[in-house]
Amino acid sequence: MAFAIETVSQLLAWLRHEPVVSAALTMLLLGPGAVCCWLAHHVAGVRLVHTGPHPFGAHRRHTDRLEARVASLVTALTLLTDSTESALKEAFTGLERLSGAMALAPEPRVAAPQRLKAAAAQGRTPREIAIAEGLSEAEVRLRLRLQGVELAEAHV
User: Does residue 154 come out as left (phi exceeding 0), alpha (psi in the -120 to 50 range) or beta?
Assistant: First the structure.
C-alpha cells in the first residue's frame, strides 16, 4: 500500500513539472466522460445534478421522450435501409441490361461413371483420370472395376 501511495505521489510530482502532458492526460481522461454526460443530458434528458425531489411523472416523461426518439430513429433507419436496397437493386438491374449479360444455362455434363469409362477406353491410366476428375486413384480404380472396365497401367 505504501508503495502505491509513493508511486502516485511521484507521478503527481512529475505531472506538476510537465504541464503539456498533464493537460493531455486530463483531456484524455475527462473528455470522453464530459461528452457522455452532455449526450445523456441532451438526448435522453438525464439530469446529472439532483435539483430536488422528482416525482415519478418526471421520470416517466423522460422515458417516454427517449422511447419516442428511439422509435423515430428506428423508423428513419428502416426507411434508409429500404431505399438503399431498392436503389442498389435498380442499379444492378440497369447494369445487367446495359452490359447485355444474360444468364447462361449451364452446360450439360456427362455423368462421372460415363466420363471414367470413356477415359479408360482412350487408354488413360487411373492416375491421369484421377487427376482430371479430382478423385483419388483408388476411387477411380474401384469405379472402373465395378463397371467391368480393363485398366491401362502406366509404363514407368
Answer: beta
List the one residue out of 156, 151, 155, 154 whose CA is nearest residue 120. Answer: 151
pLDDT tens for 38-56 read: 666 666 666 655 555 555 5
How many Cα atoms within 13 Å fall on the side-chain side of residue 120? 22
Cα separation, 86 vs 80, whole angstroms: 10
Q: Is the four-CA dihedral 63, 69, 73, 75 of positive or negative sign? A: positive
CA distance 41 to 150: 85
- Tell me the C-alpha distance between 88 and 82, whole Å: 10
In this prediction the pTM is: 0.30
What does the alpha-carbon distance between residue 2 and residue 12 come to, in Å, rounded to a whole number?
15
